[in-house]
Amino acid sequence: MADAGGAKAIEASKPEEKKKSPWLDAWHDPVAGMSCYSSFLCLADLVADGDHRLIMVDLKKRIRMYKGTTIQWEHKLPDVPCAVQAFYHEAANPPIPTLAVASGHRVLIFRNMRPSMQYRLPPIEIDPAEARIWEEMGQESADLQAGFEKLNTARENGVALSNLSIDFLAVEDLAAQAEYIRAHKDYLHEQQTSITCTEVLKQNMDEPTAVSMLVIGTENRMIYILNSDALNLAAKVKLEAVPTFISVLGLFDVEYRITVACRDGNIYTVKNGQVLSNVIELETQPVGLVRFDKNVYVGCMDNVIHCFHFKGKKNHSIYLPCPISCMSLLQITKSRVAKALVVALQNGEVRLYNGKHLIATVETNDVVSGIRLGTFGREEGSMVLSFKSGALMVKILQRNANLDGASINVGPPPEQDIPLDVPKKTKLYVEQTSREREQAIDMHRTFQRDLCKLRLSTARAYVNLLGTGHGPMSSSGGAQVRINAQVLGMGPQFKILVRVQNAGSSSLTDVPVHCTTNPNLYRIPKPCFYLPILVPQQVYLVEVPVTCINENGGTASVRIFLASKNSHVPLISAVVQMPISEPPLLDF
């Protein structure tokens, strides 16, 4: 909220006048009592009289229909809904749409505002290994503990267990496990999935009242396309992850594309029943998906809206001051042709974008939970907002509203026209400027010469460091060895932990190790020893005990050398600075 306040303060400081909002307040009901997500809202002409109704469902298992500002119909649902859609199942005159409410693994069909039928999704196939284990546990003399272990092993091996098996693995008591088996052994083959999202796809004509088909995304990573009567499957597609948002384009009988945002943070495209290889990878999880002509707008959890071409190329990004609540597309085709992106934010703002240009901002003073744009009543450019508090608001787009992003002044901010308070030029500054102008070539040559000398001296020092074995890795004598030393303990007894690694490709044998320090402060019992073999890429740990022998304590460094049998120059060395030690205890 602090970022949003800062953004408002910046906008308020601009000398430009506040733009007039293109939205008109039509209706506000603060006590509607239904808090709906975007998928819980639907606008449709349910009785073919040209007066579009608002259909709402909520988590309290209710479905309600508004005609204008009055509640025309309300019904109780058998289960918690997850989406509602209106589609035309036949080419009738007058065309009356069918209402579909997705709930669990079922699609409830309402025709003429009455429950008509329901469609159940195909059950999930149980893995044969899981079915075999349950068959063994269903016998009277079965070993439940052995079956428990087999199910656990099957899950670790990648077998997708059913919900029944997952719940069984959560039961630890043997008596409770036996009771669970007796109660559920006959229900294993009834594993069902759940619907996550829905959309409507035209079948063969791109008309508002053309015959259309339901597109359903489920928890078992499937996309189902039902035929027009919502009784049989027309097509199904397997995805890599669970779909959360769906956007469709085209005709089922000609060519169609389904853009799917999934829980793995990727955007997949399904073309004519086949998953395309061009996958859009997002940085964070998607919270909204809108298709705008050939572009795909994806809202993410990091307060950014990314715009991609439908083939996968990224166009631009829109950065927002606070998290995104929901997104939708404003599309007007009858009175005029206009399209815009509507984004609701958690701070109560509703923003209208044309491309990457901000057209207008509306303050609602409440958190928007769902948004639906379309025709409400007889007004085409209507925006229905459902709030977290249960309130309901309807706004209408002005008929002369300008949604053209090209008319927006795009360029530098007005602060750029304010001159900077530059101090006056001093005499020293003028003389230095004139000297640099007259001797620019000589100054550049001097700088380049000094820079080359610095690089040469640095390279020589580094070569000398490597030659004496003090570098991070030795490469002398054809051997590549790394060494790292760390001191352990508080004193007077210490232990130096030395890590040695052969970074080369051949083994080293009988490598001498020598430790040196101040003999007046420390004593090393075995300062010289050999490492029998150093296998390539293997890290060896060597412990070197050190004892402080000075009565007054003190500190010094311990140097560890890996010597070479063919040269007096060590392969590599490490220096450890010993901590300040307490004086050793004296024996009386």
UniProtKB/TrEMBL annotation:
Source organism, top-level taxon: Eukaryota
Bardet-Biedl syndrome 1 protein GAE domain mapped to chain residues: 481-581
Residues in Bardet-Biedl syndrome 1 N-terminal domain copies: 23-271
Name of the protein described by the UniProt record: Bardet-Biedl syndrome 1 N-terminal domain-containing protein
Natural source organism: Durusdinium trenchii
Lineage of origin: Eukaryota, Sar, Alveolata, Dinophyceae, Suessiales
